[in-house]
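A favour, since you know our C-alpha cells better than I do. Just paste the record in under my message, thanks.
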Amino acid sequence: MAKAPMIPAERRHFIASNLAGRGVISIAELTDLLGVSHMTIRRDIQQLERDGQVMSVTGGVQLPERISVEPSHVVKARLQHGQKAAIGKAAAELVPEGAVIYLDAGTTTLEIARRLPDRSDITVVTNDFVVAAFLAQNSACRLYHSGGEVERENQSCVGESAAQSIRRFNFDVAFLSTSSWGMRGVSTPAENKVPVKQAIVKCAVKPVLVTDSSKYGKVGTFNAVPLEALGAIVTDDGLAPSVRDALTGMGIAVHIAG
C-alpha cells in the first residue's frame, strides 16, 4: 500500500526537524524528499517563517541566527557600509516638507542624517549621540535629543526615561533601526531598548524600518515591535524575493535601495 502523503503540519515538522540537523536546505531537495510541488513547499516555509522557526534565503530555507549582543557603534560602522549609504539615501527621500521625524540609534540612521543637512524645514528627534552631533554641526534643522540612560557601546540613550521623552512628540515619519528582525517582527538582545522602540512606533504616523538585508533572520532575546506596526521597510536587494512578497502581502511598503 502506498504511503499516505503528509498533511501540512507533518511536512512543517519534517522541514524544521531536518533543519535542526543541517542548518540549511534547498527548496528543490525538499520537493524531492516530500514529493510535493515547489508552491506547496513555499507555503509551508512561509508558515514556519511567520512562526519564527525558519528564514527564507534565495532557493532555500535556513534556521534563524540568534544574537546575544549587538555590535558596538565602531564595529557596526565597518559593516555593510555601501548598503547602508544607499538605504540612507532612499530613506531620506521619504521625509516630507516640514516634517517632524525620528532617527533611531544606529549607523544606518546616521546615513539618513548625512542626507539632511540642507533640510532647514524639518525637526529631528534622536537618541543617538553621533547622529545628534553630526546634525548639530552640519545642519539647520530643529534638533532634539531624547536623553536617558547612556549606552556607551552604541553611543545612544535607552531605557524608560528615553522612551518617556520620545512620547512627548508626534512624528510624521520615524526611522527605526535594528540588528535583528524577521517575519515575527523586530527583536533585540537588549531589554532596555524595547521601550524606546515601542515608543517610536506608537508616536509615528509612518514608522519605517531601515535595515540592510544581513539583519533579516537574526533573532534577539526580546520582541520589540511586530511587523504589522510598520508602514514601510527600506532595505537592499539582498532580501529574498519571497520575503519581499510576504511583506507586501501584509500591506508593508518595501523600498529596495541602490
In short: The first helix runs from residue 8 to 22.
